[in-house]
Amino acid sequence: MKEEIRSHIDDAAQLERLYRGNKSAFKRDFSSLYPEVKGHPLAGFWSERLNYQSDEISWGSKGELTLVIIASLVAGFIAKLPAIFGIDENYFYPRNIGFIVFPLLTAYFAWKNKLPAGKTAMAAGAILTSLLFINLLPRNDKSDTLILSCIHLGLFLWCVLGFTFSGGTRNPLKERLSFLKYNGDLVVMTTLILIAGGIMSGITIGLFSLIGFHIEQFYSKNVVVFGVAAAPIIGTYLTQTNPQLVGKVSPVIARLFSPLVAVMLVVYLVAIVRSGKDPYSNREFLLIFNALLVGVMAIIFFSVAETARTTKSRAETYILFALAILTIIVNGVALSAIVFRISQWGFTPNRAAVLGGNVLILINLLLVTWQLFRVARKDAELSVVGQIISRYLPFYFVWTIIVTFLFPFVFGFK
């Protein structure tokens, strides 16, 4: 859309048509293009219009609202498939939980971004292939490769969603960073929706119990299931049609949690030494350690995505730099622990997956930390850090493909 905006920058009617066709994409592309076109007569007007913060809630177009309602109902229906058709829940949910929401969000962005037919077919083909693959794997609840495939399948579907979110552009670096920001906004909005839904559910069940109707079981098996499945879809719709709803909340959360997480990591590392526990001999502790690592990495990515859009404060850069250094230490401990376990007891699917993931994260952390150091010294702009993160995301996508689709065959479905 950026090239269309540039070519029609003096045509008010064409700009209005582009804006009404896809408001969020227009705003994103116009903002990145504005420094180049701000001398044009209409550029200033559109800048003021797009950055005006309205107090009113926008419900988007009728077609978009209809699509979101249908998608929410479909998500709830997919979540209820085991109850409707008597499918074993222990078989269905581990393999298919990602298909409750991700394909519908993928379809939403493909429609919203007017993704070309060829790229839409690529996304649909990837989803269909993964659906068939995961459900045709031999059933073995104790199979490590099955568990790894199920976990990494969610990441694979998340990557496909990112492809449609960015519109499949040839220069997707900025769109990938926008995708990370969208994920942060979605977490905030979905959490708020779930909290509000939980309060409403408690009140509803309580009111019915007062008049002698105990609806807890029916409500949890039907209304709650549909509500939880629909929450990310409704959250996505609200963040896309009303970016102002979380536009000021997300940066605050990023600024607040970055220093808090840094302090927590320092205290936690000291506590590990004092406790006498370590990830070298305790498998469960190693798993928790790696979960902590992934969580902190997500906070760094989210903070960079938010800070790059809002401010270039050196204090925030130093905090992110310190957080990245601490995360490298955590990664180093986890990586040394998994190498130790492999040297003692050999390769297993879990150890191979953790080793590969830790190496990928370490390389990414080193690149991000170096760029944050350059930003702190004023040798580079914070946008360079975002570019590094964006360029590295495809490596995670490749790794999810390897673990999801190749590990079961490499390790003989063990």
Automatic annotation (TrEMBL):
The keyword Membrane applies. The chain crosses the membrane at residues 65-85, 92-111, 117-134, 146-166, 186-211, 223-240, 252-273, 285-305, 317-340, 352-373, 393-413. It comes from the Bacteria. Keywords: Membrane, Transmembrane, Transmembrane helix. The keyword Transmembrane applies. This is DUF4153 domain-containing protein. It comes from Mucilaginibacter terrenus.
